[in-house]
UniProtKB/TrEMBL annotation:
It is found in: Cell membrane. Pfam families: MFS_1. One of its GO terms (molecular function) is transmembrane transporter activity. It comes from Sporobacter termitidis DSM 10068. Residues 6-404 form the Major facilitator superfamily (MFS) profile domain. Its main location: membrane. PANTHER family: RIBOFLAVIN TRANSPORTER RIBJ (PTHR43385:SF1). One of its GO terms (cellular component) is plasma membrane. The keyword Membrane applies. It is a multi-pass membrane protein. This is MFS transporter, OFA family, oxalate/formate antiporter. Signal peptide: none annotated. The lineage of its organism: Bacteria, Bacillati, Bacillota, Clostridia, Eubacteriales.
Amino acid sequence: MKSKRSATVPIIGCIIIQICVGILYMWSVFKTPIIASFDWSKEAATMVSSYMLFAFVAGNLIGGFINDKKGPRLTSVLGITMFCLGVFLTAFLTKETINLMYLTYCVLGGLGSGFAYGAGISCLQKWLPHRKGLASGIAVSAFAFSTVIFTPVSNALMDAHKVDGIVSFQPVFITLAVVFFVAGIIGTFLVRLPDEEYLRQLPAAPASAKVYTGKNCTLGQAMKTVPFWCIFLEILFINGTWTLSVPLIVDQGMRHGLTEAAAVLTLTITGVFNAGGRLIMATVSDKLGRTNTIIVLSVLTLIGAGLMIVGVPGFGFAVAICIIAFGYGGPASTNAAFTTDFFGPKNSGTNYGVAMLALGISSILFNTISAQFLKGDFTKTYIMAAITAIIPVILMLIIKNQLKKMKAEA
């Protein structure tokens, strides 16, 4: 009993940290008020989420190296500190210096968020190696659930510091930075790795999820395999629909017949579906298998993109966005377990950090194509999104074929 209870404290610590750094998905809440308050262009503001997401995956990579060498506690402390410093410095921007948000909120905040996010996933996978999908799901669903908690909090803070439609963001971001720092640092004190005695008492992983090659691969060894690049490309494409949707949820929701309040509520609800996809599908993947789970999520994402193409109004728009959020959430946890399945837990921070670079590329690539080549056309953008949702199915079939070869050679 003692060893089983010992996992509770670090799990709670990781959850607290993930909730603190999860406002990565909340840019739609701040975007319109910041445009109005700082006279910033819509195009410049739209790119904030893409740049922050790119910094976030870079943080996963850099933090992954540190995590594999120094452990999750130090990595989490560094992540929380950078993230909160980025939010804090953003509070002091003016109309003349607003472009520095790319450095404070995007780069510094994004890197810190990535440090803490990757460390949390790696830590929980080590505590629950027999349920890697569930472990990843707990970590990344807490990250997504931050939107549910802090969207109303952020709106309340902005309303409290708004005069004639203009928000004074200094107290808003200072308050958020202080809250995140205090809670996040408390969370880091709870984080630790399991000992060998604890690990020896754990049951084996379900056979349906077990595709582990039997050795811990270095990054160089992992990158020489077909599955690594299939996972990399799957991350690139399956996230395309969501990264295209994030900056549009509130604005397009209103254009599709929702009130402003309903559009903001839709954004909040996407946090629930995002978190639900991460937790539910990660747990499902332990039984259904990673490849089958990704195929299911790709089909859901395709359905969401299809609803956008036909232009569903009002409540239908909200449903479509929630389907897309669920389809995006599932791979976020499944891929972390997927990478560890193939390449082992020892270098999981580094291996998954490199694979996650695909998410950063995705965030900039598809938004740039939409803005520059499709001229922001809504229908054409979601036709592209539908195509990106089909490709992961093909990649999973390739991995299935690789698994058959591995079993035949064993």
